[in-house]
């Protein structure tokens, strides 16, 4: 029995060795992709180059950027044949981390929304596809605004505006719900750290939202009729 198992293992290792010997290298796959794209390795920024299995055969997935163009290649690992190519224009490049600043991002969003006074404000710098963006979220008495702004140029990339619903069925007000959240947050937090809205859940009015303070993100839900928390979660931001 041991001899049979040993023989099977030897055959498996021999087959794997022969298979590996028949494969092109990852570096060769990258060269094939670059040659097809007509670019040099010096000008390319590689994001991904790994061996994968697609439709029962080994392939190399190669992804790289040149200026504002993204290239995605799928190359047969045994033959070096290009199986698929995808080229997309992307807003990408070797940009600096210089930004317009939070205050300017807020000014741009408020000016576009034609809003002078807000009830809450949240600004966060994030990176999406190697581009720095400001996410600006704020509320007024009757609306919620979400803006995505290019942190380098100040260009507005995305806008979302929703009308807020406020309970008229008794219970606590949205201002009182905000105060309840503040009571649970660490000292120093303010209403500007909270984003809250009213909604309906199984026929009852609830206040739900998020808060960001001191490196943590909080998610909550409050029963508007009773003024009690029905959900409270915290995780590292």
From TrEMBL:
PepSY domain span: 24-85, 100-159, 172-231
Keyword field: Signal
Protein name: PepSY domain-containing protein
Lineage: Bacteria, Pseudomonadati, Spirochaetota, Spirochaetia, Spirochaetales
Record has NAD as a keyword: no
Any single Pfam family the record assigns to this protein: PepSY
Keyword Signal attached: yes
InterPro entries: PepSY
Native species: Candidatus Aphodenecus pullistercoris
Stretch forming the signal peptide: 1-20
């Amino acid at each position: 029995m041991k001899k049979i198992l040993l023989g099977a293992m030897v055959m498996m290792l021999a087959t794997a060795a022969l298979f590996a010997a028949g494969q092109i290298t990852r570096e060769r796959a990258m060269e094939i992709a670059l040659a097809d794209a007509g670019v040099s390795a010096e000008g390319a920024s590689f994001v991904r180059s790994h061996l994968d299995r697609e439709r029962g055969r080994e392939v190399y997935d190669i992804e790289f950027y040149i200026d504002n163009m993204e290239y995605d290649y799928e190359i047969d690992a045994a033959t070096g044949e290009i199986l698929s190519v995808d080229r997309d224009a992307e807003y990408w490049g070797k940009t600096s981390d210089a930004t317009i600043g939070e205050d300017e991002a807020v000014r741009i969003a408020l000016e576009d929304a034609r809003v002078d006074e807000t009830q809450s404000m949240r600004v966060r710098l994030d990176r999406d596809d190697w581009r720095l963006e400001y996410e600006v979220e704020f509320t007024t008495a009757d609306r919620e605004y979400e803006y995505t702004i290019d942190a380098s140029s100040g260009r507005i990339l995305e806008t979302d505006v929703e009308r807020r619903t406020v309970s008229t069925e008794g219970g606590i007000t949205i201002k009182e719900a905000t105060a309840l959240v503040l009571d649970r947050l660490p000292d120093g937090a303010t209403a500007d750290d909270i984003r809250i809205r009213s909604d309906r859940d199984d026929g009852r009015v609830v206040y739900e939202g998020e808060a960001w303070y001191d490196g943590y993100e909080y998610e909550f839900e409050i029963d508007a009729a009773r003024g009690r928390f029905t959900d409270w979660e915290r995780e590292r931001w």
